[in-house]
Design a protein that fits this description.
With 230 residues, the protein is α/β, with parallel strands linked by helices. It has one domain: Alpha/Beta hydrolase fold, catalytic domain (Rossmann fold, 3-Layer(aba) Sandwich), CATH 3.40.50.1820. Helices cover 36% and strands 19% of the residues. The chain is built from 6 helices and 8 strands, in the order βββαβααβαββαβα. Strands 1-2-4-3-5-6-7-8 form an 8-stranded mixed beta sheet, sandwiched between helices.
Length: 230
Amino acid sequence: MVRIETLDGSGGFDAYEAEPQGAPRGAIVVIQEIFGVNEGIRRKCDGWAAKGYLALAPDLFWRLEPGVQLDPDVAPEFKHALDLMGRFDQDEGVRDIEATIRAARARLPEGGKVGVVGYCLGGRLAYMTAARTDADASVGYYAVGLPNILGEKHAIARPLLLHIAGADHFVPPDQQRAMHEGLDDHPRVTLYDYPGEDHGFAAEMGKRRSEDAARRADERTEAFFAEHIG
């Protein structure tokens, strides 16, 4: 774990860091689900480090419950995660992601690029990060609640990739249609649909994972970052 200062200097938070062997080809900020920086998110970071990237996963719930790690397959922990999401300030979260992006850039050689990838709540925050920060590229998996922030799309100036679960019980068909209607013609945004797949299909472990869809989405993400990050 490494310490990252907030943008306004009023505090700090922890982030899990995974370092590659040799000079990094760039950096990836991994944005948590509602379950905190748990083993699945740490495995995502380790995977990016194995591919040559510096990876950082900030603890975005630090103001509510520092260091929380929850299991989505355990009902009381899932309920607790939903409670944390309900109390979480997403605007502050994006500012913490921006602080993490800056910290990642400071760890790279001059000119190094930083991408972000998020899941669930993190997918929504990845969209907000694309609109509000200078991240070089952003990826969101099964982002929740995008229709009510589609108005921010005009601020997206760098590439954004979104993976949409076709049978997502948190993102119903009308919301999926709104995402396509609002973003299909955006020159910086690419959307991929995964028919029949439910929310969380690319989780590293547990009941939600769908192996084939996860592999296809992750291959697309890897190619996307190879093109835009390094």
